[in-house]
Amino acid sequence: MDAFTQMTGIVAPLDRANVDTDAIIPKQFLKSIKRTGFGPNLFDAWRYLDQGEPGMDNSKRPLNTEFVLNQARYRDASILLARKNFGCGSSREHAPWALLDYGFRAIIAPSFADIFFNNCFKNGVLPIVLSEDEVDRLFADVAAQDGYRLQVDLIGQRIITPSAAEFAFEVDPFRKHCLVNGLDDIGLTLQYVDDIRAYEARRRQEAPWLFSEPA
Amino acid sequence: MAARTLYDKLWDAHVVRTDEDGTALLYIDRHLVHEVTSPQAFEGLRLAGRRPWRIDSILATPDHNVPTVDRSLGIEDPISRIQVETLGRNCSEFGITEFDMSDPRQGIVHVVGPEEGATLPGMTVVCGDSHTSTHGAFGALAFGIGTSEVEHVLATQCLIQKKSKNMLVSVDGSVGNGVTAKDIVLAIIGEIGTAGGTGYAIEFGGQAIRELSMEGRMTVCNMTIEAGARAGMVAVDDKTIDYLHGLPYAPSAGQWQQALASWRDLRSDGEAVFDRVLHIDAASIQPQVSWGTSPEMVVAVGSRVPDPQQEADPVRREGMLAALKYMGLKANMPVSEIRPDKVFIGSCTNSRIEDLRAAAAVAKGRKVAEGIKLAMVVPGSGLVKRQAEREGLDRIFIDAGFDWREPGCSMCLAMNADRLEPGERCASTSNRNFEGRQGQGGRTHLVSPAMAAAAAIAGHFVDVRDFD
């Protein structure tokens, strides 16, 4: 996983609540057995006018020019501004994979669904929770200014606007540590092999049926 | 020891270690695996030169991509086929038990786990699938995880977790005739919203939940994620224990009494404190029909499609307008005037034997209406299918004009060949009415199995209680 310390990028506004992971990456693209290559199908049903299928040449498909990511001013966006409960629904990690593959490294919303929120951190994508009022203000600012950029400072846990206004955000210390250092969770957990084995030995005594297989 | 909730007890029993900031390493007892969210995890394991920590904790079955028609022909879509074959290869490489497509026990992972007794009270159960919350019906801590976490559990038998808050949803009193577990959970989601449970583990309690069968409790817990909570659960009682007795993965005779003694404590203590408590009057719950593109957009069958102009909150109003447009519905129209093109009875929410019995009771001796292009019944597993056939339910469905299919996720999410065409409308016993969920441009109305069968017969939504 790539480390995340700070970044600056163009902000794309996706002005709808309850954006679900089926919308972020539709089911037909979940048949891939890889982690990469989902970017061209991010928000596929909203982004293109035709019906997307795996294996299509996406560069030749008709674009829905009304969709925000197809507007020239947002084409190079790397920060997504969204509404409440972003990422609800399915646990598919293909959702953060698609966002990352497209080029998003940070998502700002008033709230996120739990599993999606967690999946983002595992992939070096930073989900940032701001208040409804702050998100409203950012939507207004993005609309008002072409090429609107935000600076995201994870170390300092703040977002800095072009006019140097700052919004502080919370982040779980452990997740921050992993993201800032690009750490692999599994490697960290395997430091505690002895603890896991001790737990298992105790549990095997207390609840042996949890360790038996069908006859 | 202070009074604890069921969730507190399950959590405490599985903590391997806790950091100062509350980040815990949680031990996982059961890992269910399917073909869609596991290939990248197995690949990660291989690349790092790691092996699964405890293969006897893992049970795998393909469900999302499998065809529901003649299996002898294999899977036509080459990409789906590769994914299912990849699961088979990964399981044989690492020695993992898999119920493959030819196994009579194959089915939807959330149907297979409980019916094998692979889901037991007091367990932590995970799967790379958000509907893993289903298994909480057994007094287990069960939740969906992403693929990175699938790899993490494979490699370490643990997950790094922070404890959620406790919520109790108490459904007080009894539901009326014709009101099912699906109606209860849709009504709860309508009440608290799709983010109402975010950050919580929800325990479902109250008389109406205690009166549900295990199948009904699974339906309720299954859709906990649609209320935003990763885990839903129900306390252990005699029904739980009776359901499990004698199942292949249940404790052997020698361990049964010891297991029972420990399971009896899997309930919230009387003095336990919840962070949030919600009471719902069971008698007020009517058969539900979703009208929009989020499971919270749901109303009683006897009512009308809501009017966005009556909604004060602008973000919600925009969401309602977009939903009506997508669904091709008008505000204030009676729900009973909505006419589905297709009917789908199946999914991890509603494909168990009790669900099929309820739908068959409505379909018996009747015919699917002429306007319905396709009405299909997809049992949750091979064992459910065989049980239904023993009871003659397949004949009832076939005689009424329903398709009787092979088990799998099917048109709940349309990863296989079963799907809606653009603009088609479906009465569905599944769990999500998101845009495109059952096929791009498809329109989903979530209902109970009895309500779906009644819609198939009548050709439009109808109150199943008026249907005899």
Summarize the structure.
The complex is a heterodimer of chains A (215) and B (468). Chain A is α/β, with parallel strands linked by helices.
Q: Care to describe what's here?
A:
The complex is a heterodimer of chains A (215) and B (468). In chain A, 31% of the residues lie in helices and 14% in strands. Chain A is built from eight helices and seven strands; from the N terminus they run βααβαβαβαβββααα. A seven-stranded mixed sheet of chain A has the order 4-3-2-1-5-6-7. In chain B, β4, α3 and β5 form a beta-alpha-beta unit. Chain B is globular. The interface between A and B is large, with 63 and 81 residues.
Descriptors for this entry?
heterodimer; A: about 220 residues; alpha/beta; 7-stranded mixed beta sheet; 8 helices; B: about 475 residues; 5-stranded parallel beta sheet; 15 helices; 19 strands; globular
Coarse shape of chain A: globular
Q: Provide the low-confidence segments of chain A as ranges.
A: none
Count of DSSP H/I helices of chain B: 15
Task: Label the overall shape of chain B.
Answer: globular
Number of helices of chain A: 8
Runs of chain B with pLDDT <50, length 5+? none
Q: Largest inter-chain interface?
A: A-B, 63 and 81 residues
Rounded to the nearest angstrom, the radius of gyration of chain A is 20 Å
Strand arrangement in the largest pleated sheet of chain A: 4-3-2-1-5-6-7
Biggest beta sheet summary of chain B: 5 strands, parallel
Kindly report the spatial arrangement of strands forming the biggest sheet of chain B.
Answer: 5-4-3-6-7
Structural class of chain B: alpha/beta
For this entry, what is the oligomeric state of its chains?
heterodimer
Strand fraction of chain B: 15-25%
